Amino acid sequence: MSEIKVRDRRATLPSVDRVLQAPAAAALIERYGRALVVAAVREALTAARAVAAPAAIDDVVAASKAALERLMAPSQRRVFNLTGTVLHTNLGRAPLPEEAVAAAAEAMRAPSTLEFDIASGRRGERDEHIAGWLTRLTGAEAALAVNNNAGALLLALNALALGRETLVSRGELIEIGGSFRLPDIIERAGTRLREVGTTNRTHLRDFADAIGPETALILKVHTSNYEIRGFTAAVAPARLAELAHRRGLPFVEDLGSGTLVDLDRWGLPHEPTVAEALKAGADLVTFSGDKLLGGPQAGLVAGRADLVATLAKNPLKRALRLDKVRLAALEAVLRLYADPDRLAERLPTLRILARPREEIAASAERLLPIVSRAVAGTATVAIVETKSQIGSGALPLSLLPSVGLTLTPLSSAGAAVEALARRLRELAVPIVGRIDAGRLILDLRALDDEAAFVAQLPNLK
Ligand SMILES: *Cc1c(COP(=O)(O)O)cnc(C)c1O
Known about the structure:
Largest sheet: 7 strands, mixed
Bound molecules: pyridoxal-5'-phosphate
Helix content: 40-55%
Mean pLDDT: 93
Number of strands: 15
Shape: globular
CATH superfamily of the largest domain: Type I PLP-dependent aspartate aminotransferase-like (Major domain)
Oligomer: single chain
Number of helices: 20
C-alpha cells in the first residue's frame, strides 16, 4: 500500500527538465545562468518531495526564484545606522566622503602608480601617496600605513622590541572588543610585557625602576573605551617621553582614535591630536584610519624617520600593507584635511558628529507623523531627547546631545519590541536602531538621507 502512495506523490511532481522548459524558468536562466537555476529547481523539487506536497511547474519556478534571489542578494548591504553610535564597528565605522569613493573606484578600475614613480619611471613606494599628507598634517618626520591600528601596533612592537621588554602601565592593559587585548597583541608581537604600577595609579618612578637591560621601549595606550576615576595617577606623556629619551628608549603612543584636527573647533569634546602627541615627545604614534579620522580602515604610524624606516623594512609590513583601493581612499580623505574650514561640510564623520541638536530635532519633527503612520496599529511614536556616542572607543564618556524617535509597541508582550525592530531590519535598506526599556529608539543624528529613509517606510511589513 505504501508503495502505491509513494508513486502517487511522484506523479504530482514535474521533472527537472519540464520545469526548465517553462518560459518563467527561461527568464531565470537568462538572469542567473543555467547551473544555478538547475540546482535551485532540484532543491525545490527535493523540498516538495520531502513534505509529500504536490507542486505545479509554476510553484517550483516560484520557489526556485525566491531561493535564487536570496542566494544572489549581496551579503554586505547598506543600512541606516540609527543606533546612536556614530562610528559603529559592526556597521563599518566611518562613512567615506564622495571624494574617497571616487578615488577608490578609479584605483580599482585600472592600473595605477601604486608603486611607480612617474618622473623616473622606476619603482616607487606605496606609502608615498599618504606619507606627505600625514607628515604635513601632524608635523611628523615620516609616516606609513598598514591594515588597521591593531596591525600598526603589532608592527611597531615587533620591529622595535622583538625578544625584549615593552613597558606598559597596568592601568592601560585594555581590551577593545573581543579580539583586541593589549597583552595578547604584545605577546604575539614577540615582545615581553612588563607591567608597571597598579591598576589605578602609576608613577614616573615605577617606570624608572622597571627600566633594565632588557627594556626595548615604553608604550602608552590611550584608554579609549573606559576611564579610571577616583584615587588615580597616570604619568603625563611628556614626562614619560623625557624618561624614555634619557634612558635611550623609544616612546610609542597608541592613540587609538587619534585625530588630525582639534575637535574643540566644532564644539566637540577634546581628543588628543597626533600633532600634540608628537610635540609632547612621542617617537611614534599609531592611530586608526576609520575612527575619528573619517577614512577607510587603516592603521597609521607617524613619527621619527629612523623608526618609521625600521618598521617599513620589517617583514610584517609586507603582510599588513594597504591595498591600492584603500590607499586611494585614504589619500583623498587626507587631502580634505588641507582645508579645515570646510572639513565639517565635506567629511561625513565630522559632519555627523558636529550636527547641531536643533537640526536633528527638526528632522525628528518632520519624521514623527510619517513614521507614526507607517507603524500605526502596532506602535506609538514620540520624539525623545537622547545622547549619541562617538563610538569605536573614542571619548567613551563624552556623549553628544541628540534627538530620536521612540517606537513603543502597543502590545505589552515581551517580544513585541524585538518583533518591531526586526520589521525595520527587514526593509530593503535595513533600519538599525537600539532597544531600550521596551522601546525602540531611532537616534536621528546619523540620518543623512531622510528621503531614502521615508521612501521605503510604505514597504514595512
Ligand atoms: C580602536 C583601537 C585600537 C584598534 O584599532 P583598529 O583600527 O580597530 O585595529 C587599538 N588601540 C586603541 C587604543 C584603540 O582605541
